[in-house]
Backbone:
């Protein structure tokens, strides 16, 4: 299937909207992506004709809903090339998936005195849970440095793995601020050689690249549905089956048990063990539709389109006088954080909004990273989706030039 | 492209945003507070000298967008020399102004001061920016009440 961005845009009803009388230029897909009709329709059809609670009723609708829910799990497994569907745990989002690992693997398996390695470029979702683990469970926390170019300092990682105390390396597969794509396979190799497991925060990466958890040899991999053109309220934890088998449960309640008596309970096998309570059924159906949608277009085609956008954005943004970009990694995706010399990020985003351009301003849930680059006051961030066009990037460039004149 | 934003970014605001007045820490200050807007990273420290009932001097330091810097700058100018009660009243009135664009309840007593703050009324049309304008005033309240931290969240 050839990649025709015009046709793709027709799948996204919201993109036809006018914003303050101007065509919407949506450059905040990194925060949350827009939804194609295919996802919206699948969720509506589920609620209109195939909805009931799952794993509970022995009647037609419940069986249908259960089958659809489990079909979504199989689709996620295929999407990530997991060895089996039971390695896929549905969560509410990436944040919950990482907290699950911090709880069940961190407190359940790691021993006080061991260390967790994360990095300076993490989203708070992959930083705060490890700080909480450190404080509650006597785990040492180490941060891999980020180079001036915005890449992970692999020499520093090697140094931090050296003493053999590290039980887990938890790093991003793609930075939500710098756009940097990290060398995941190499990081996994380094972690494993040091006797550590590895978790990748794929919240950004899984949207832009074909992810193969077996090729990466990832122990844990997480992503979130709403950035992948799917609904909010659903996320994914992939974990190797043996790890899930070994881990104690996260939340207690229905669905996660094998037996319950007044004296105590025994746990269900994974993945049910980690899915207490009624799950996000409609959202799982929506995620399945989103995966089918991007798979039909083809991740390689999406990646090629976005590579062209990245090159174009680099050319356009570097022409804007007074603009500085955060990070210039070799391998990067369509996320650009920048600041203008004479305008604060918030003022800038108010101006861009007037032009119909939606960008995010602030620190993008990565305060330590902004501190690292000396921009504590925040940056503006433009992030692309599969529906983004080169013309939109040109328009952003022109608006930035005008904005700088406005504040001059 | 941005002409209609001149209502929000009036000359006065750009001027105070770029060159904030009273951007300093008064030597003999006896009240201090920090203001924080965790969403966007705006942060300020306010120090003031309360002499009996009167705010005889005040200054602020920190970082933020043009709106928050200008608002803090104008706040220090209007509050200087006011009594505690007047300062509180200005703070309430300003917040009404920033949130609704006007302050019909505001009395005549501080009309000149409110006139001075009028250029910031434009923020009420930008819900995500109202807190930029009110941060300085939250911080002022904290300093006057003797608490140490204010947040515009
Ligand atoms: C790199 C990264 N990690 C984690 C998250 C958290 O995702 P969620 O808020 O869906 O849990 C995000 C997005 O906000 C992200 O960009």
Residues:
């Amino acid at each position: 299937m050839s990649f025709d961005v015009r046709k793709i845009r027709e799948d996204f009803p919201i993109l036809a909207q006018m914003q303050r009388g101007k065509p919407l230029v949506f450059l905040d897909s990194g925060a949350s992506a827009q939804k194609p009709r295919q996802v919206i329709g699948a969720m509506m059809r589920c609620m209109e004709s195939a909805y009931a609670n799952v794993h509970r009723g022995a009647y037609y609708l419940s069986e249908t809903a259960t089958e659809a829910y489990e079909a979504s799990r199989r689709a996620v497994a295929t999407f990530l090339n997991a060895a089996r569907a039971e390695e896929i745990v549905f969560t509410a989002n990436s944040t919950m998936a990482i907290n699950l690992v911090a709880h069940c693997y961190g407190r359940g398996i790691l021993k006080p005195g061991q260390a967790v390695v994360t990095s300076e470029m993490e989203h708070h979702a992959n930083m705060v849970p490890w700080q909480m683990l450190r404080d509650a469970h006597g785990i040492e926390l180490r941060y891999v440095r980020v180079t001036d170019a915005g890449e992970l300092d692999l020499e520093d990682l090697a140094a931090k793995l050296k003493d053999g105390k590290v039980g887990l390396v938890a790093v991003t597969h793609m930075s939500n601020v710098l756009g940097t794509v990290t060398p995941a396979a190499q990081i996994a190799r380094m972690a494993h050689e040091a006797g550590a497991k590895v978790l990748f925060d794929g919240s950004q990466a899984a949207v832009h690249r074909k992810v193969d958890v077996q090729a990466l040899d990832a122990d844990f991999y997480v992503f979130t549905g709403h950035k992948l053109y799917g609904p909010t309220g659903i996320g994914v934890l992939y974990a190797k089956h043996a790890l899930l088998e070994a881990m104690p449960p996260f939340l207690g309640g229905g669905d996660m048990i094998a037996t319950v008596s007044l004296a105590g309970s025994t746990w269900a096998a994974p993945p049910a063990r980690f899915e207490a309570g009624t799950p996000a059924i409609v959202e799982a159906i929506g995620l399945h539709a989103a995966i089918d949608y991007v798979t039909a277009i083809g991740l390689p085609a999406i990646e090629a389109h976005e590579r062209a956008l990245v090159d174009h954005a680099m050319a356009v943004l570097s022409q804007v006088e007074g603009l500085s970009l955060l990070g210039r990694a070799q391998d990067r995706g369509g996320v650009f954080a920048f600041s203008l010399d004479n305008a604060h990020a918030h003022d800038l985003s108010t101006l861009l909004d007037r032009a119909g351009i939606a960008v995010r301003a602030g620190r993008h849930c990565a305060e330590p990273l902004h501190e690292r680059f000396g921009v504590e006051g925040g940056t503006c961030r433009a992030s692309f989706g599969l529906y983004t066009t080169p013309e939109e990037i040109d328009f952003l460039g022109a608006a930035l030039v005008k904005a700088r004149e406005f504040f001059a | 492209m941005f002409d209609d934003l001149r209502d929000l970014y009036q000359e006065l605001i750009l001027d105070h945003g770029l060159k904030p007045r009273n951007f300093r820490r008064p030597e003999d200050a006896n009240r201090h507070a920090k203001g924080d807007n965790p969403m966007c990273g705006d942060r300020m420290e306010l120090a003031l000298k309360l002499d009996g009932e009167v705010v005889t001097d005040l200054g602020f330091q920190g970082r933020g967008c043009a709106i928050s810097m200008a608002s803090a700058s104008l706040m220090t100018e209007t509050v200087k020399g006011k009594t505690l009660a007047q300062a509180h009243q200005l703070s309430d009135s300003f917040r009404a102004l920033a949130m609704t664009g006007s302050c019909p309840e505001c009395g005549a007593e501080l009309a000149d001061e409110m006139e001075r703050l009028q250029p910031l009324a434009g923020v009420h049309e930008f819900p995500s920016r109202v807190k930029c304008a009110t941060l300085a005033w939250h911080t002022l309240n904290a300093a006057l009440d003797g608490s140490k931290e204010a947040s515009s969240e």
In short: Strands of chain B lie at 31-37, 42-51, 54-63, 149-151. The pocket of pyridoxal-5'-phosphate is lined by residues A 93-95, 123, 125-126, 172, 176, 201, 203-204, 224, 365 (CB under 6 Å). Chain B has five helices and four strands.
